[in-house]
Amino acid sequence: MEETEGHGGAATAPAVSSDAVAVSDEKRRQLLEKIRSRASSAPIKDEFIDFQRFNQLYGDQNNREGKPTATKEDSQEPPQKRQKKSGQNKKRPRPKRDPPHTRLCLNVSMGKVCVYGDKCKFSHEVADLMKKKLPDIGPKCYNFDTFGRCPFGLMCRYGASHIGPDFENVVDESRLVDPASLTHNQLTLELKRSLRKKSAPFPKSEVYLQTLPRKGRGKKKEAHDTLVANTLLSDCVKSKPCSEKGLDNSISKTTESFIRSNSEGGVPSADVTTAQPEVPQGSGKTSPEVGSSVSDEGILQDSSNVSVIQNGGSDSIVVSRTPSAVRSIPETSEAIPIIPAEGAETVKTPSPIKLIGEDQSVVSSGIVDPGANGLMDMSLSETVNGPREKKSLDVDGKLLLAPLTTVGNLPFRRICKRYGADITCGEMAMCTNLLMGQACEWALLRRHHTEDVFGVQLCGAFPDTMTKCAELLSSRLELDFIDINVGCPIDLVYHKGAGTGLMNRMPKFEQIVRGMSSVMDIPLSVKLRTGVLENKNMAHTVIPKLYDWGASVVTVHGRSREARYTRSADWGYLKACAQVAQPHPFIGNGDILSFEDANDHFQNSGSAGLMIARGALIKPWIFTEIKEQRHWDISSGERLDLLRDFSNYGLEHWGSDSQGVEKTRRFLLEWLSFLHRYIPVGLLERLPQRINERPPYYIGRNDLETMMASANCEDWVKISEMLLGPIPDDFIFLPKHKANSYK
User: Which residue among 37, 93, 138, 205 is least enclosed by CB atoms within 10 Å?
Assistant: First the structure.
């Protein structure tokens, strides 16, 4: 066995194992054979196996097998459907919230004047509510000790350390720190209002979305629209001077058609002014500045320095950025024909688009061509000011914490960051909820100051919402990258076309990636699975396209949607995916629970970085083990200290009042539904532990270690009471994810 380091000490037989003496040696041998015959059974040392419990378990099974079973004729009740032991607990009870009038106003609790006065929906009766307040959990408040002031004032469940005799909230000026300064990406009131009123601007997204085909239109119709748009633009330029009203209408229609037809899956790079009065050839006069322009941000504005003119000797439409009106264009410009729609009448005077710089040189030119999936490909990909440079995301040799729904919250990420995670990512956020300004969804995007490289993951099914959300977040929040979720296997997400459902909708998938990439100046990453169906892998065909569409990094989880988490990750297939991704960075993900796993995948899979998900939930110190190349036999006391730190971070993040304490407790219990699967190093016959291995019933080296190994929710609740005090009388908890562990 490999030597291990840590504070747990050598493995010794537990003192409580005396109960196992009641089982005879012959019975122990038989039970041990049954335990070892299980393919997924973890190799626990014999002296730690709870043989008495196994004897009771198999004895009960034998008794049930010996009883005569009731026939259908004898049974009066209909047969009950067998309960599934995996998946989600979809009928979990929701926590109840007290009505507002029974809760103290936060401003009053902090000793401030409530701006709402008598109209406030919360109570201002301090003395009455303080009498009804639940007793304090402990004598010291973590928030007060850390920041010099508790943000929850009189309602804090640890208020003995900072509530005065006259119900005033004590402030320690010597160590006063604003907690809000330590976290970023807050939802401001102004942004929340603009999102709910649907008045928030999305200039780049609006320009890109105009290039997409409308719903229900075929390729011929899109090609026809392309031809009509260019013809309209040409005719408008050639037209005679018209009335101001007619000119404005022509400008509006032509601008919309031009944007929809002549952009390359991203933001058009030139300002475009449509419909100028005809300038007589050789007159030397310039056209007056009329109409509006579409800027790089996609906002219609007055065009004082941009014009569309017709070359006197050719039939080219030229886009010019000028400091004054319009300057003459050399007649040597070559005309690039526009491809007409199939079966449509050929235009006699085709009109190419050219971008003219300050020095009269052609910066770029292009021709409209309906590309794949109806996207209009045009080579106007660089702005007059030069190409937009994106920041890069360095993942070479890095360890990434995967985006984890529910359990990947900010306090948990702080724990993982402390143990050595290089890159962290927030929980999966639904783009539609973000665009509606839902505060609970925006809370998933918050970033702690210790997260030096941080990104968020968006989930959505349509290019309009995903593109707008990417533009909004990249421009307003402090992010290092944005990730697209194409790996969520949950039915609710999949059947709406999001998550792994995007792998069945490649046209929409392409539009989403192109659109998000075009409106962001930070890297775009994509996380997907090997495919939708088992034994029908398709990720290797999608990965090269993702980089072409604008993705900077691709992560693949080595399972299909159909497999969920029931089989081992296919790292042989991930190696093939890494090869087709070259020379771009590729990240592998799946079943990493030890430094041996990480070393093997770094050396043999071709992955630039590794993403860790369940391995971090089972033992968040895995990042330390990988970097220090050792097995850490962490003691039960150290793990309890780890849970205490998580609880303190939760009280800081969710609050130290009754509501915040119970929310912290629920997230702690959700984490314990994974954490109990860890098997202490000193109890294993063989190292390392595999992620899909489940231990037999065993007794730890002390009572706390035995309790932490329990798969019973009641034991998890007992651990939470050690840290957060007794549970309320009406407390009910079911984990979000059903555990595939023994019972």
Answer: 37
